[in-house]
Specification:
The structure holds two protein chains of two kinds. By secondary structure, chain A is mainly α. Chain A has eleven helices and no strands. Chain B is globular and about 55 Å long. The chains are: A mainly alpha, B alpha/beta.
């Protein structure tokens, strides 16, 4: 996966483990009920409930253990958050009501921002293509998403080609290059730009403190 | 009854059958579905994996459009769309500062959203508003003898649990029973199908899909009913890989609950989008259409 395909803008400079911990907690505390992360009792209900925990380098419980041990950078290097299916089972079962799925999202965002996606380029690449498509059209375009993704994964493309063609012939996949954009594309762009500006201002203000 | 409808990207193409069957059953139930004009992608689980605020801003544009058109409620058929849109509502309600930021973003585009649009799933409206009595009254061809595993999946009830229990939902079982079908015990009903991760980590997540298929068969189901485009995709598309993993033939047709409703309401298979799936539903359709 060439870097340029994965990330248009180069990732921000890596943070020290202490800084990483601070930034992570700051973002998590900013989420509704985010401060509940402090209440983790390490019971492991999250890991036991997770459909993909057995494939994660660090289980959901271990994220908070690593955070407390000052080792969050290890988690960011791991595949953990990119194996999260966002099924929210951990979130609804946590006896301390910690929104673990939202922690996973935060890890993904930090990983992308600070360039920790080297080992998990596939899922991150898929996310970037999806965002590019929805920004350009206002809606997802499944054929283009898959075509752009499979360009980097020829073996997977081959394995799925026959089924893809069948779906295509059944009208379940749009022709590449077809599919119209929403009328409010300009609105969407204005919303995006305004919120990006707000985010940047917020960050600058915090950095100045 | 008027319903504001948020289709979502998947049902435009890959999950077309879900869209057409939803429209068909609404007609039978006397529900006037009005599509939200110029809706945009909710962002799914993907946009917020990269940008949080912008993701909610995009999602909020839909809510703003719904509010502008004077609606207090909007229904989605995709549980991910429903959860994402609901999450934007939830965050705006719980965090006034966050709500201010989102509104600032919307205002830059000449829009606004004050928080008055409730987002619900179609199955919730069918069972809890329209009611199972009305559903029973619309049945002309009961699905007698059809053993079906009602697979609820994750985001229909999680994380908010506004529709049903997050652990052991039964809303779809009750609906299918009202159609005359026989829902089987399905212990994995709320277990995740692997979501988007099946696409990027196929070899690791296929066992998750395989478990769902095997359980349905072990419990005696002839077919699996779903309420989510991604559940349908994973259970239907990846059956060859799942069978290889299981070392046996667990081939099982998968249908949207709305397609089964339509069959029971006497709609034609074509009206319900049957025939587009990878694992044939031919036998099922031939028996009940």
């Amino acid at each position: 996966m060439p870097r340029g395909e994965l990330l248009k803008a180069p990732p921000a400079e890596r943070l020290s483990p202490e800084e990483l911990r601070r930034v992570f907690l700051q973002d998590v505390y900013a989420l509704p009920e985010g401060e509940r992360i402090d209440l983790c009792i390490q019971c492991g209900t999250c890991s036991a409930s997770c459909p993909t925990a057995s494939y994660m380098e660090y289980s959901p419980r271990e994220i908070i253990a690593a955070l407390r041990a000052g080792l969050l950078d290890r988690v960011l290097h791991a595949n953990t958050h990119w194996m999260c299916t966002s099924c929210y089972t951990c979130t609804v079962r946590c006896p301390q009501k910690i929104k673990i799925t939202d922690l996973m999202y935060e890890l993904k965002r930090l990983g992308i921002k600070y360039g920790y996606t080297d080992k998990h380029a596939r899922a991150a690449a898929m996310a970037h293509i999806f965002i590019d498509l929805t920004n350009k059209r206002g809606r997802n375009h499944e054929t283009e998403l898959m075509m752009r993704y499979y360009m980097t994964r020829p073996a997977a493309a081959m394995a799925n080609a026959a089924r893809g063609l069948k779906m295509f012939s059944q009208g379940r996949l749009p022709l590449p290059g077809t599919g119209k954009s929403i009328k409010g594309l300009k609105e969407l762009r204005k919303i995006r730009e305004a919120l990006e500006r707000i985010e940047a201002e917020k960050l600058a203000k915090e950095a100045g403190k | 009854m008027d319903l504001l409808y948020y289709p979502g990207c998947s049902v435009e193409y890959t999950a077309k059958a879900y869209d057409v069957s939803t429209r068909a059953v609404c007609q039978k139930l006397g529900v006037d579905l009005k599509e939200l004009e110029d809706w945009n992608c909710c962002g799914a689980t993907t946009y917020m994996s990269v940008r949080e605020l912008v993701s909610h801003g995009n999602s909020a544009r839909n809510l703003a459009l719904a509010e502008k058109q004077g609606y207090k409620e909007m229904v989605a058929v995709c549980p991910a769309c429903q959860t994402v849109l609901h999450k934007t509502n939830d965050y705006m309600e719980k965090d006034p500062e966050f709500a201010q930021l989102i509104r600032q973003g919307l205002k830059a585009a000449g829009l606004d959203y004050t928080g008055g649009v409730k987002v619900r799933h179609f199955i919730d409206v069918v069972v809890n508003d329209i009611g199972l009595d009305a559903v029973r009254n619309s049945v002309t061809k009961p699905l007698g003898g059809l053993k079906v595993a009602a697979y609820h999946g994750c985001m229909l009830t999680r994380p908010y649990g506004t529709i049903d229990s997050s652990e052991r939902p039964t809303i779809m079982d009750r609906l299918l029973a009202a159609l005359g079908a026989e829902p089987v015990e399905y212990p994995l009903t709320a277990k995740c199908c692997g979501g988007m991760v099946v696409n990027t980590e196929t070899e690791k997540v296929v066992p998750v899909v395989a478990g769902l298929l095997r359980c349905a068969r072990d419990m005696g189901a002839d077919c699996i009913a779903v309420a989510c485009p991604l559940c349908h995709m994973n259970l239907d598309f990846y059956q060859p890989e799942a069978n290889k993993f299981l070392g046996g033939d667990y081939t099982t047709p998968v249908a949207y609950f709305t397609q089964l409703m339509g069959l029971a309401f006497g709609c034609s298979p074509k009206e319900l989008g049957f025939g587009g799936e990878l694992v044939s539903t031919g036998k099922l359709v031939a028996q009940y259409a």
